Amino acid sequence: MKKKITLNFILVFLVLLTILQAGALWIQLSSKSEGKRRAQNEDASYFKTMLRPEKAVINFSGYDHTLLYDCRDIYDRYRDLIIETLGKTSVEEMILLSTEEYMDLMKKSSIVFQFNDDIEGNIFANFTGLGAVNSQENSQLREIYLSNEEVAISMDEKHYYVNIQGVEGLESEIISLKNTEYDPYLNFKELYDIDKNIYFPARNQFLVDRVFYMSNIDNMNDVYRQNIVERFLSMDIEYVNQITQSEETIYAFGQKYLKFSNDGTIEYVNNEEFSSQNLNLYTSLNTGINFIISILGSAENLRVVGIEKLDEAGNMGYRIFFNYIEDNITVYPHREDKKSYLEVEVYSNHVKSFKQLYRRRVETHSTVEEVQSIMYLDRIVDRNIEKFVPSSNEKSLREILGKITSISTVYIDDMKPGSTALLPALKINYEGRQLYFSLKSGRFLMEI
């Protein structure tokens, strides 16, 4: 029976109740300012978590390096120093280095944090206040080099000394890592005599965790589904309209709807009127992350993998793409119509839409660390040379290798029904394209 209270009261009450249940906000009625500070601290915490290096290169000496995807703890120890020192640095205080000079630094005991170059612009620099980088319009911070004697940064294809002293105590960190059983890596200079700070395993094998994913949206727990609906629509399920069709189920309230499709897609759309006359990436990303947290409970296992600018009827915003992280390695879905697991359209403080490929890790499978044999990079490229250049524009293997801007180990999810193992793969960024190959066989998998 419909309750005889005003709809506005219901909305206010249920929105608050939903937010509390989702664990998205912590409200202290006794102090509004304290609550605001806490929310700001939470935002900063998530930005620090998500906007971190993809990997770290540990240089022991020439021809002796390793590469760590599990570098959060190391980065956290030096993050504040990086932000504080580089934030005070102007362009005038930086000294331009040649590529040869920069590569010579890799022969010294040092740590190099390498950032995910899928993100356009200078997002990390903007959110952490790196003044020298921010002053270079549309520049992207790619690497931060730290040693006992020097600090350097790499932006786009240029490299700079930062006119500050080196990092005290860094040597003991590197010695500690040297005494572990690390996987050896070599850079392009050592492998191919190409001056690029890109690294590949020196041996044809490496350790990788065996991880399984599955999609089971049809058998989603009813209680969980109800909670998801109420979080998205900010309304008790009792007041939500439900439309069930053969291929999808739609839940609607007001100008918002949520759709569960049998292909494993969850889609939310908010058609309420809004106004966003200016582009504000910080506000939009902040809004998008907080929205995801309110629905999923956390954003720590996500990585931003792409950002597109939007202009819809004079309203400006961003489409932000996220992928999952498993054991510090980014997972990419192998599906033609999707290049990411999560996609959010945000216009400053307004979330227009949200899309998710509903895939989850299968916990019933025990994670097994196994030795994975791999094909060497030059053989992968040589066997797939037509994927890099058309036959009418032949280039030498070395020319192709020289145009690679980065490589990363990733997981590929083939999106098959049932429980499937993620496939370790190599992502190659080549002339603005992203090409993916099986690490074991060198087989071409996909292009984004």
Describe what you observe in this structure.
It contains 13 helices and 27 strands. The N terminus is likely disordered. The N and C termini lie far apart (52 Å). Strands 12, 13, 14, 15, 16, 17, 18, 19, 20, 23, 25, 26 and 27 form a 13-stranded mixed β-sheet that branches. Strands 2-1-4-5-6-7-3 form a 7-stranded antiparallel β-sheet. The radius of gyration is 24 Å and the shape is globular. It is α+β, with helices and mostly antiparallel strands.
- What is the subunit arrangement here? single chain
Radius of gyration equals: 24 Å
Percentage of residues in strands: 25-35%
Averaged pLDDT: 83
**How far apart lie the N and C ends?**
52 Å
Low-confidence stretches: 1-40
Shape: globular
The major beta sheet can be summarized as: 13 strands, mixed
- The total of helices stands at 13
Q: In terms of structural class, how would the helical and strand content be classed?
A: alpha+beta
Total number of beta strands: 27
Secondary structure: helix percent: 25-40%
